[in-house]
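Translate sequence into structure tokens.
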Amino acid sequence: MITVTFNCSDDLICGFQISGHSGYSEDGSDIVCAAVSSAAYMAANTITEILHIDADVTENDGFMRLNLSKDEAVLSSDILNGLRLHLTALSEQFSDYIKLKISEV
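Result follows.
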């Protein structure tokens, strides 16, 4: 199962962590993993390469974490809210494969 945790402070998303594999299908043809990965990379790349924010991004097989300061989170809020909206819809469609959490920090 993929677990997605959004780190929030005062109703502002300050980062996210995604870990695990969905198990929906075998590697290379898992549309759930592909959808989540694509959305996460698009958000992270938009924040770092388009907005030029030096975000703390960590990635490894089946794992991605992005952390922002509060000021950086304000600048990135539309992107992170869009990511949350997209992953929420995916978690509703594939509830056996994606778990979504909100963590107040």
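Note: The mean pLDDT is 96.
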